[in-house]
């Protein structure tokens, strides 16, 4: 992983994210390696100089928003103002159960997400913060020092049209959706535009990105190897995800172009486990990235 974020920093990538999980995802039985996200982010911040450092996304069910605000503010100082903060309602019921955490119904998790976003914004921006909600409460709460950035970017991940995208329109600087097709991503983005109109928010103020799984090979042989890994990770996933880079660089380029055409500001390539395919990553950086710079 250290080699990976140094590679990203040196080869022109603009963002390095970790995922907020206690065991591997998609769930593979819990025996895979999975490092903790906040401490990993702090290490990334200390060992890079250019890439932005973030998480897509921190699960609101895993820690109090005050704890996360302090952690991300600290990372913003370590990185000299390169931290982003992404949050989401959470989905991995297996993980919640493994650690004895209550897994609320989706409506309650969306309520938590909405309050969490508001609390973070207050703690990042205000000298002292007061908040009383159904799930969180602040009483003259400080967050000192403030982030290095005048406005630390807040991202919200997810594609729920009734609640998640409404919360994005109200509070977020950026929206990320995972593993959608270009057409579906475009449709969700249009739904977000509608929520922005209702919230009297300029849609252009919200950066919009897509997470895609990285299963591209540097050549035909590498593509076959990555297809086997794709089947291992996703063949039995019930959610029907379709947003992946698969095949050769030429085939992956078509997928990147489709998302760019749909209006995506950035594509995040998700690597699930090591050892990483450095030939494939080099091919991506050398042949695909320059076309969309």
Structural summary, described in words:
- This protein has 293 residues and is an alpha/beta fold.
- It has a domain at 2-157: Alpha-Beta Barrel (TIM Barrel), CATH 3.20.20.30.
- Helices cover 43% and strands 18% of the residues.
- It has helices at 2-10, 37-47, 65-78, 93-98, 106-125, 164-171, 182-198, 220-234, 249-262, 278-288; strands at 15-18, 52-55, 58-59, 85-88, 128-132, 137-142, 154-157, 174-178, 207-216, 244-247, 266-270.
- The strands form 3 sheets. Strands 3, 4, 7, 8, 9, 10 and 11 form a 7-stranded parallel beta sheet that branches. A two-stranded parallel ribbon has the order 1-2.
- Helix 7 (182-198) links the parallel strand 8 and strand 9.
- The mean pLDDT is 95.
* Helix coverage percent: 40-55%
Mean pLDDT: 95
Structure class = alpha/beta
Query: What proportion of the residues form beta strands (DSSP E)?
Result: 15-25%
Separate helix tally: 10
CATH class of the domain at 2-157: Alpha Beta
Summarize the helices and strands and which ones pair or pack.
Layout: H1 2-10, E1 15-18, H2 37-47, E2 52-55, E3 58-59, H3 65-78, E4 85-88, H4 93-98, H5 106-125, E5 128-132, E6 137-142, E7 154-157, H6 164-171, E8 174-178, H7 182-198, E9 207-216, H8 220-234, E10 244-247, H9 249-262, E11 266-270, H10 278-288
Parallel strand pairs: 1-2, 3-4, 4-7, 7-8, 8-9, 9-10, 9-11
Antiparallel strand pairs: 5-6
Helix pairs in contact: 2-3, 3-5, 6-7, 7-9, 9-10
In a nutshell, what does this entry contain?
The chain is built from ten helices and eleven strands. The protein is of the alpha/beta class and 293 residues long. It has a domain at 2-157: Alpha-Beta Barrel (TIM Barrel).
């Amino acid at each position: 992983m250290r080699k990976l974020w140094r590679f990203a920093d040196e080869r022109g990538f603009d963002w390095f994210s970790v995922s907020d999980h206690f065991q591997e995802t998609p769930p593979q039985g819990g025996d895979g390696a999975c490092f903790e996200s906040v401490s990993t982010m702090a290490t990334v911040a200390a060992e890079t100089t250019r890439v932005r450092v973030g998480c897509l996304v921190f699960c609101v069910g895993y820690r109090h928003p005050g704890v996360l605000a302090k952690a991300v503010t600290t990372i913003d100082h370590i990185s000299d103002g390169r931290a982003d903060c992404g949050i989401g309602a959470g989905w991995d019921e297996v993980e919640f159960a493994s650690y004895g955490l209550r897994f609320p119904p989706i409506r309650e998790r969306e309520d938590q997400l909405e309050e969490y976003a508001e609390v973070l914004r207050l703690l990042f921006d205000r000298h002292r913060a007061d908040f009383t909600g159904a799930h969180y409460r602040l009483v003259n709460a400080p967050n000192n020092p403030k982030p290095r950035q005048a406005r630390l970017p807040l991202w919200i991940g997810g594609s729920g049209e009734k609640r998640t995208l409404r919360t994005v329109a109200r509070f977020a600087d950026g929206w990320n959706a995972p593993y959608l097709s270009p057409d579906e991503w475009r449709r969700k983005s249009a739904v977000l535009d509608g929520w922005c109109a209702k919230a009297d928010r300029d849609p252009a103020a919200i950066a919009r990105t897509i997470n895609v799984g990285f299963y591209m090979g540097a050549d035909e042989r590498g593509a076959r190897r990555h297809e086997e890994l794709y089947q291992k990770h996703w063949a039995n996933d019930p959610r029907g995800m379709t947003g992946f880079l698969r095949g050769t660089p030429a085939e992956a380029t078509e997928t990147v172009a489709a998302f760019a055409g749909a209006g995506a500001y950035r594509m995040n390539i998700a690597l699930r486990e090591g050892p990483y395919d450095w030939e494939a990553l080099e091919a991506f950086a050398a042949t695909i990235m320059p076309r969309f710079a």
